Automatic annotation (TrEMBL):
UniProt lineage: Eukaryota, Viridiplantae, Streptophyta, Embryophyta, Tracheophyta
This enzyme's EC code(s): 3.1.4.46
Protein name stated in the entry: glycerophosphodiester phosphodiesterase
Originating organism: Urochloa decumbens
Hydrolase as UniProt keyword: yes
GO molecular function, one term: glycerophosphodiester phosphodiesterase activity
Gene3D superfamilies: Phosphatidylinositol (PI) phosphodiesterase (3.20.20.190)
PANTHER family from the UniProt entry: GLYCEROPHOSPHOCHOLINE PHOSPHODIESTERASE GPCPD1, GLYCEROPHOSPHORYL DIESTER PHOSPHODIESTERASE
Pfam families to which the protein is assigned, alphabetical: GDPD (PF03009)
Amino acid sequence: MALLKAARVADVPTLDVVAPGLVVETTADAAASIAAAAAAAAGQQQQQQRRFSVIGHRGKGMNALASADRRLQEVRENTVRSFNDAARFPVDYVEFDVQVTKDGCPIIFHDDFIYTEEDGKISRKLVTDLQLEDFVQYGPQNEQGKIGKPLLRKMKDGRMLNWNVQSEDALCTLQEAFEKVNPRLGFNVELKFDDNIEYQEEELTRILQAILKVIFEYAKDRPILFSSFQPDAAQLMRKLQSKYPVYFLTNGGTEIYTDVRRNSLEEAIKLCLGSGLQGIVSEARGIFRHPAAIPKIKEANLSLLTYGTLNNVPEAVYMQHLMGVNGVIVDLVPEITEAVSELIALPEPDPEVENLSNNQAAKGAATPNFSHREISFLLRLIPELVQ
């Protein structure tokens, strides 16, 4: 019987409300669909073991500055230190956000805007409008004795907070990550774009080629996978290269966008099949709200990863494994890798990311054998969290 380790359901931040106009299954229907998906996946597991992957979100975890949970302010996200801290645990990849500066240098930073305080006033700059030499002046500095511009971060509610963490490190470029991060660690490179900008193909091509130039020169044998919420960027990256897999990022129908390709798992499947993409990365709530999409994803021979606050709940991660999800992107790296230690293999990611897909054999991972009592508990828990 599998043990549910390190359970911290109460620690999970309040989930966003359902977007107006979205159709979601009722709690009872969702529970039934989840049970069906888990049963179908369990049948497949009896014939072959599947590898289950844990991926560190922005390294060892994102910085949630407004959270009372100090673990979410432990180390500065998207830095070499955060990546190497994550590498101390059995994660296969770290996920991070890549943008390209005005002078063509791929840098690692999540937010569209970067904030600081100058002469008592808040200054805001679009990250992609900065030259590299300007970008690296923000935050902690590698050069001893040098003081960078103080970093601020704008919250969703409009508050501006000092971006302070317990373990600091300098902002970095994509090249520095390749040069300084543990080489056994795979990179999930999110191609980051501003939702409020309409990009022409020429501009997208310029950005993606700048990223590929660094990757082809410095990746060597490191496993790489690309992902993006920007449908055109994901499709174009697939056209520009075929060496590394490209996944489409989606909220799974938990938010609505003007681009319909972003509004459901069904649209995500359609985009992947039409463009030759290899997988989908969905918000975990989208999977739990629409579990019937999982068999369709598997039938399309696509890999399925998830992200979101639910992935910091061990029970939710266990259930996703049962349902057929191939891997999870998490913030609480130590806790989740410990909780799912029976599911994950030794930290030796395969250069061929197809080892994440449903038709590949697992490498040393044990499949948990849940009792009826555990299944009953999980079926009650998950829909309540999702709703």
